[in-house]
Amino acid sequence: MVSSTARRPRRRDLLLGAGAALASSNALAQPAAPRAQTWRFNNLEALAGLRPEVLGAPAFTAGPFGRALAFDGMDDGLVLPHHPLAGARAFTIEAIVRPDGGRFEQRWLHLAEEPALPASADVSGGTRMLFEVRVTDAGWYLDAFIKGPGYNQTLIAPEKVHPLGRWCHVAQVCDGRRYASFVNGELQAEAQVAFTAQGPGRTSVGVRMNRVDWFRGGLAVARFTPRALKPAQFTMTRA
């Protein structure tokens, strides 16, 4: 027999308990804010503590800080099971890169949120942030892009052309509202966005996630910072 002193839970208590459980599950579902990470492209066996999937045969080349990777623009690339800026509400991506020519449109860094799909699923068109170059007879210009719920923004400046075959520093920065791109510390383009944090996923290097738009050139290092840096705070303003 139930004791007469036992109290049946009231509807308010049940609702509060359910709300707390839901909040707890949502907190678990959200990725933790990431730490700054530096990826040095000098080893095909391990990268930032991860073992990359190697596509084609990326070669080693002399970079500004020692050994770097060179991609042939045909079938060389890397895929890693990690989105280094998942959970970040602001971010800076920096890299030391050397475009060497080739096709007009080339994607060399692609961070993609991965929904609850098999690892082989194509996530190239969903929530993502990326770098591309556009190659012309005169040289190349930068293309930076972010897309997610409520935002879809390209930063591109065809009039700002840079010479091929030279190492340079590139960056894209978002503080949650202002999104801007830079080459060697100089502003290329900017726009207003309503950025929200992206979820966990994968990264492809030297190619688009669905294995088109291969990059021809070198890549020495990339750094991912979960806050917006000013140009004076970039870790490397020039190669």
Any overview of this molecule?
The protein has 239 residues and is mainly beta. It has one domain (33-233): Jelly Rolls (Sandwich), CATH 2.60.120.200. Helices cover 8% and strands 42% of the residues. Strands 1, 3, 4, 6, 11, 12, 13 and 15 form an 8-stranded antiparallel sheet that branches. A hairpin with a 3-residue loop joins strand 11 and strand 12 (178-183). It is globular. Residues 1-7 and 11-29 have low confidence and may be disordered.
Summarize the helices and strands and which ones pair or pack.
Blueprint: H1 11-29, E1 37-40, E2 53-55, E3 59-63, E4 66-72, E5 77-80, E6 91-99, E7 105-113, E8 128-136, E9 139-148, E10 151-156, E11 168-174, E12 178-183, E13 186-192, E14 201-205, E15 216-225
Antiparallel strand pairs: 1-15, 2-5, 3-4, 4-15, 5-14, 6-11, 6-15, 7-8, 7-14, 8-9, 9-10, 11-12, 12-13
- How many strands, what sense, and barrel or not for the largest sheet? 8 strands, antiparallel
What sort of overall outline do the alpha carbons produce when their principal axes are compared? globular
Low-confidence stretches: 1-7, 11-29
CATH topology assignment: Jelly Rolls
Q: Termini distance?
A: 79 Å
CATH-defined architecture = Sandwich
Q: Please give the number of β-strands.
A: 15
**Helix content class:** under 10%
CATH class assignment: Mainly Beta
**C-alpha Rg (nearest Å):** 21 Å
Residue fraction in strands: 35-45%
Average residue-wise pLDDT = 88
Number of domains: 1
What structural class do you assign from the helix and strand content? mainly beta
Order of helices and strands: HEEEEEEEEEEEEEEE
- How many helices does DSSP assign? 1
